[in-house]
Amino acid sequence: SLQVAGAGVSGVQLAVAEESPGAVPMIQRVTVRAKLTLGGTFTLADAFGRTTRPLPWDATAFEVRAALEASAFEAVQVSAVDTLATGWAGEASAWDVALVSVAGPLPLLGCDAANLTRGDAASTGGGECVVTQKRAATSVPVGGAFKLRFGGEATSRLGVNASAFEVRAALEALGSVGAVQVTKGSRYGDSPGPGFGYGGGAEWLGALFGPRGEG
Prior knowledge:
Helix content is 9%, strand content 36%. The chain has helices at 61-71, 164-172, and strands spanning 9-17, 27-34, 38-45, 55-56, 77-80, 91-98, 110-112, 116-118, 127-135, 145-146, 149-150, 153-154, 158-159, 180-186, 201-209.
């Protein structure tokens, strides 16, 4: 239930999340490589076509993470891979990308290698980008519905994917609630404690501007 403290503008926060013991997010490995030396840039994209800015072939894990979070995902964890251990004879860079902000299995990231080059060539071409599944996801998206209570009243049922507008409308339909501002974001477990895992969820943050009838 919602709890509002004090008078005037009060911020309240509601989170709906599911964490499954031992559950883990999907990890995908992105590898750019060439048979000789490597140069140029590449881009990554999600299943909806949201594409990162061009990344240098030897981008750091931070650069890859920042590009993905700026374009397609709320949160990812990225770690650089020792490409010498992969046995590739040429030059390569690789990263393991954990998709922590989205529960469940996902399509593999798209990777555009058109602007990768062999380091000894002025023209593009000669490099390739490969995306593989490193670890399958065992996390499960949240489902179902919930209600909010305020001043002894309950809203209509709201789905866990309800928009900010739907949550706002449901609250403002209550007789004891005046104007409401609601924003929505994702909720994820990127650093679960012992015994916890990853799950899906959503989070709404609202400001209640006093009871109905107050200016």
